[in-house]
Amino acid sequence: MEAAILEKYNSELVIEEVDVEPPKSGEVALRVKAAGVCHSDLYVLEGATPVPPPLVPGHEAVAEVIEVGPDVQGLSRGDLVVTSFIWPCGRCRNCARGHENLCERFSEVRLKGVLLDGTTRLRRRKSGEPLRIFLGGLWAQEAVVPASAVAKLPPRLANRPELAMLGCAFLTAYGAVVNSGSVQPGDTVAVIGTGGVGLAIVQVARAVGARVIAVGRNPEKLKLAAEMGAEVVNARDGDAVAEVRKLTDGRGADVVVEAVGSEQTVEQAIDMASTGGRVVLVGLMGLGKKAPLHVARVVRGGISVIGSYGARPRVDLPKVIGMVERGLLRPELMARDFYKLEQINEAVEALRSGRSIRPIVLP
Ligand SMILES: [Zn+2]
Ligand SMILES: [Zn+2]
Q1: CATH code at 137?
Q2: Which of 109, 270, 275, 315 is the most interior residue, by most CB within 10 Å?
Q3: How many Å lie between the centroid of ligand 1 and the Cα of residue 162?
Q4: Which cofactor does the UniProt annotation name (predicted)?
């Protein structure tokens, strides 16, 4: 099969023939139908998330199960699935406590570019060299992932390549809004960032009955947020914090979700929250990067600052799929750009430049 390989940081991806070993215990082999291109992939390409190359990126996809490994229940050859970027081991302390998005075993292997057993199933055909993966290795025709990372799609959601976005953007949005933000119907939610994750947060927050204010800098993406039912604030036009306060009778938002990951936007998120409000941090910064915290505001305002990493693939991803089935979430609004695997570098550039919200690769 063919896969897009990152040879070294900050270089173009190359398409190469790759051999795939069969799935081991608890794993499934997949034929990838569509895969999303996400900012977290860009961090890997740049080495800011230091997974050692050579590796195959790509961590959200729609795929068909082509082989089921030993000890896997509930999945069969031919099933259509969405794959999440989170792989719960199901046995560690956090998995047992119901926080499988924070799986201890997964966090051990995440930056090593290997599966839960510490090895990879991919080898370059020309050299036999093992290939690492970034949370799936889904910019490829085939992949092997833990069965705990996939959720079945109902047949009526077949032929919907944009559903690849459910595995990262929408799963992250669900975790931020429902699990970490505890957003209630009628709450005002400010969302900073109008990329794939930001717009998915707008959709999930609207779906649970919140009033949503989207804060961004790209007029086209803000227009899309407005079509999704958000009020919008263009941060280029002035003081975004003052604008959000004005729209909320001076109080600020009950919940602010920060989906950019910059010093400035983290600061704005704290300043936009109402007294007693919650700030949910979703945007990632490069490893080791920090943002200052306005402690007096957090303390006196009784503000909760909550980190939110994905959501539970076996509990929440089926709910996200159900929300799409019932028309509550519409990932198709964000999927406008489709690429063949050979065009992977164009797809990456389209995301990097801000031209595309969520490029979709069709291997
Ligand atoms: Zn992602
Ligand atoms: Zn675990």
Answers
A1: 3.90.180.10
A2: 270
A3: 14
A4: Zn(2+)
Ligand nearest to the CA of 146: 2
**DSSP state letter for 23:** P
pLDDT tens digit sequence for 179-215: 999 999 999 999 999 999 999 999 999 999 999 999 9
Instruction: Show the domain range for 104.
Output: 2-167+330-362
How far, in Å, from the CA of 84 to the mean position of ligand 1? Answer: 9
Please spell the DSSP secondary structure of 130-187, one letter per residue. Answer: EEEESTT--SBSEEEEEGGGEEEPPGGGTT-GGGGGGGTHHHHHHIIIIIIS---TT-
Residue 324 resides in a domain:
no
Ligand 2: centre distance to CA 110 (Å): 12
CA 196 from centre of chain: 8
Phi then psi dihedrals of residue 141, to 5 deg: -75, -30
What is d(CA 10, CA 19) in angstroms, rounded to the nearest whole number?
A: 25
Question: pLDDT digit string (tens) for 29-65?
Answer: 999 999 999 999 999 999 999 999 999 999 999 999 9
Cβ within 8 Å of residue 130, ≥6 positions away: 120, 122, 123
Cβ neighbours around 117 below 10 Å, total: 14
> Taking the alpha carbons of 242, 246, 247, 252 in that order, is the dihedral positive or negative?
positive
- 310 CA to centre of ligand 1 in angstroms: 9
Name residues with Cβ closer than 5 Å to ligand 2, which is an ion.
89, 92, 95, 103, 105
Q: What distance in angstroms lies between residue 251's CA and the mean position of ligand 1's atoms?
A: 32
Instruction: State the distance from the centre of ligand 2 to the C-alpha of 137, rounded, in angstroms.
Output: 20
Confirm whether pTM is higher than 0.85: yes
